[in-house]
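Dear support,

Our group has been running a series of protein-ligand predictions, and this particular one with C2E is the one our PI (initials K.S.) wants archived with full inputs and outputs. We had some confusion internally about which version of the output was final, so please treat the block below as the authoritative record. The input we submitted was:
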Amino acid sequence: RAKAMGRNAFALFEPSMAEGAEDRLRLETDLRGAIERAELAVHYQPQIALANGRLIGVEALCRWRHPQLGSIPPSRFIPLAEEIGVIDQLGTWVLEESCRQLAAWDWQGFRIPRLAVNLSVHQLEGTRLVDRVRAVLDATGVTPERLELEVTESTIMRHPERAVDALQALRALGITLAVDDFGTGYSSLAYLKRLPLNRLKINRSFVEHLTQDGNDDAIVRAIIALSDSLELATIAEGVETTDQADFLRRAGCLEVQGFLFGRPLASEELAAAWA
Ligand code: C2E
Ligand code: MG
Ligand code: MG
Ligand code: MG
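Confirmed final output from the archive:
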């Protein structure tokens, strides 16, 4: 029986694997040129103050519209960009584009207090990040206190000592720093205390079953308590229901992001919905 299953599994698995490898090679090649061909875009997801429903910020999220394959999710092309060494270029483009957009919105009288941009491992560990960020802020006229960079726990913990230096240099520019996907990695609390952080983002996986899974309720309360005692702000991501939002409000989480309040939108759509 095991043999038969094995054969079946093999028969089912092999063609899709071959297809996967071919797809991947094609994506690699195409991704290298995607910025020049203007196939990338930045979408913006609202961040909301739970107290009054106001827009307090947006997170910039990269999108790739492949001319033949259609829209490719960042969970696929960001890791690929890391592997093939174009993440610096891609990350810099997202930062420039979103800062330019923030400044353009300012001009239109649509003032968004904060712009959050994701940083990848390579960007954080690279040597030119601080200069790049400073250059983008100078070029776009965005003041540093409005820019927040999001770094995941796993990015920080890969080389924690280096991360401490890099994050300190970024903070010295006057920007703020958030730990993305908090709770999914394995942050050492010792580092958490030493890092110049401003905000913890509670990962969607804990928010998803809030009020339905007592363990998640407890974890989220614990993260908020930890964040409070380290004097950090807390934002929850992936909020999809009013029950989740109510729970978070009662638990003392002041900021939220999620489909309940708004999906990531193209710049014109965001302005149409919120300006
Ligand atoms: P992230 O930084 O944790 O971004 C939040 C993700 O959760 C986004 O997925 C967003 O669309 C999704 N999300 C927000 N609210 C909800 C909700 O209520 N329900 C559900 N089901 N999902 C929600 P997205 O845009 O697919 O991005 C996935 C990840 O790709 C991001 O996770 C981030 O790690 C990475 N990424 C995206 N853009 C960039 C970028 O410009 N640079 C880097 N380095 N990474 C990026
Ligand atoms: Mg993020
Ligand atoms: Mg996240
Ligand atoms: Mg993430």
